[in-house]
Amino acid sequence: MRLIPRSLVGQTLLAVAVALIVAQAISAALLYRAAEQRRDTALLNTAAFHLVAGPASPRSAEDRRARRQIRQMVQAARSPHRDDGLRRLPRRLRYIIQDASPLLPTERRDAESETGIDAILSAQGVDIAELVVTTRSAEADPLLATAAQRQPRLRNALAGRQPELLVVGLRREGDAQWEVARVLDPPREGRFLGTLLLQTAILVAVLMVLLWFVLRRIARPLDALADSTRRFSGTGAPEPPLALSGPEDIRRLIAAHNAMQARIGSMLDEKDVMLGAIGHDLKTPLAALRVRIEGVEDPGARATMAATIEDITRTLDEILQLARIGRSDVAAERTELGALAASVVEEFEDMGEPVTIEQHGRIPAPVRITWIKRGLRNLITNALRYGGSAAITVLREGDHAVLRVEDEGPGIPEDRLAEMLEPFTRGEASRNRDTGGAGLGLALARAVAEQHGGTLVLANRPEGGLRAEFRLPTG
After folding, report:
1. What are the start-end ranges of the E strands in 322-441?
2. Sheet holding 128-137: strands in order across?
3. Which residues does the UniProt record annotate as the domain HAMP (predicted)?
4. Distances 257 to 30, 293, 308, 329 between C-alpha atoms, Å
5. What's the CA angle centered on 325, arms 321 and 330, to 5 degrees?
6. Does residue 367 surpass a pLDDT of 80?
7. Packing angle of the helix pair 369-387, 337-350 (nearest 10 deg)
8. How many CB atoms lie within 10 A of CB 468?
9. 8-53 and 192-235 are packed helices; what angle lies between their axes, rounded to 10 degrees?
10. pLDDT confidence band for 365 (50 / 70 / 90)
11. What pLDDT score does 234 carry?
């Protein structure tokens, strides 16, 4: 399955969606970090406030507030949202004075929190002799565990959540006792991630819908332009001008395409007229010359002149055929390539040529039968001329059909393989058809392959000889 779409619309939508998701993820990380920093700052400030305000608070008022806090916690314990009632401890648990440090033997001090609280207390004019800060679970705190045993309702309120406690111990200058503040670590916002995911999903959906309509307005005329160009490059047949649509930039592109297509069509029409005139003007005197040589008395000279005229006529036919490829009005037909190749092989077998064929299943493909046969004949003729025999194989490789022609000849030097596909290029310098012809066979075969959206590939066989392959798309 393809993960990255091929179309402009699909790739743009995917890129925007990924960019938006990444941006939202970065934003979420920054927001979460800022929220954690605010949460930690609030926790330290609350602990510092208890230490500063603790000694000056009236005991009776604090007792009343403590009882009210306990009642609120018990009520919250009976509520589906009981976690909200555990944000504060009763006053008698939040602030106490004791003789020893609150740090338990197995606990570690929180140096970062100590630095923060030290700065807050120093700013309030508190003379600090010693300061310890640690974090422990509520069930591991001796004071809170004792209070929970005495108060069943408090025990029920704390059950299930197991909150964390920030415990701060302060010993002031000139004082042997420790002031200890306990602050419940407030619960983190559990719905933060879900809210962000929902927000991201809504943003992506809305943006994708709007962007899809905008991109379709751009992509639709581009698709029509690509289809028109593909058809024109395949057949060369003139087409009606495309309607101007889409944004202004696309309209200018379509207008330029229409003008270019009209110009190319006019040039191709002129070329066809010129080729027709050349063919007529050259073949007529050649035919007349063929009649006149019948009066030559020397049979050897007459045969030589006739062969020369025939050679010129065949070369002229090949040139005209090469020039006309791509201007065929015949539509491609879906044809079984094995049967097509077998029909060409039969032609050579009827002439007694050593040609064999091997097929690997049925391989249908859209082709122009006449042109494919002509190209295949050229490849087989080359194999017979240089190798003495030809072996044809029809097979499928991926989404391409392969018509392979192999011989046992001398092959082609590696540095000349690409050159041999050019017109009028031959393996040896003479123009004698008995030793190679005019050098148009491979060029014509390459043009046929390219007309069908395929390629002609030449390669030397490891065991000797040349391999020529038509590689044609099956779709």
Report:
1. 333-336, 355-359, 364-367, 390-397, 400-406
2. 95-98, 178-184, 164-172, 128-137
3. 216-269
4. 50, 53, 46, 21
5. 110
6. yes
7. 50
8. 27
9. 160
10. very high
11. 62
Contact between residue 346 and residue 451 where contact means Cβ atoms under 8 Å apart: no
The DSSP bridge pattern shows strands 95-98 and 178-184 to be antiparallel
Residue closest to 169 by CA, chosen among 130, 140, 127, 135: 130
To the question of pTM greater than 0.85 for the whole model, the response is no
| C-alpha 1, offset from chain centre | 12
Residue with tokens 């000279």: 301
In sequence order, which ranges of 124-191 are alpha helices (DSSP H)? 142-150, 152-158
Q: Per-residue pLDDT tens for 294-309?
A: 877 788 888 888 888 8
Q: Which residue has the tokens 């029809």?
A: 394
Half-sphere exposure in the Cβ direction for 307 (13 Å, CA): 10
CB 204: neighbour CB atoms within 10 A?
17
Tokens of 424: 């009028």
Q: How far apart are CA 282 and CA 204, in angstroms?
A: 69
Domains and CATH numbers, the chain: 8-193 (no CATH), 236-329 (1.10.287), 330-473 (3.30.565.10)
How many other β-carbons are positioned within 10 Å of the β-carbon of residue 7?
Answer: 12
Helices (H), 351-440: 369-387
How many residues are recorded in the chain?
475
CA distance 449 to 367: 10
Q: How far apart are CA 260 and CA 242, in angstroms?
A: 12
Mean pLDDT of 433-460: 77
Contacts of 101 (CB under 8 A, 6+ apart): 130, 132, 169, 171, 178
Residue 441's Cβ-side half-sphere holds a number of Cα atoms within 13 Å equal to 18
Quick check: 86 pLDDT over 80? no
Which of 471, 452, 460 shows the shortest CA–CA distance to 416? 460
Q: What separation in angstroms does the CA of 287 have from each of 248, 282, 432?
A: 58, 9, 21
Q: Residue 318: name the closest of 423, 235, 398 by CA.
A: 423
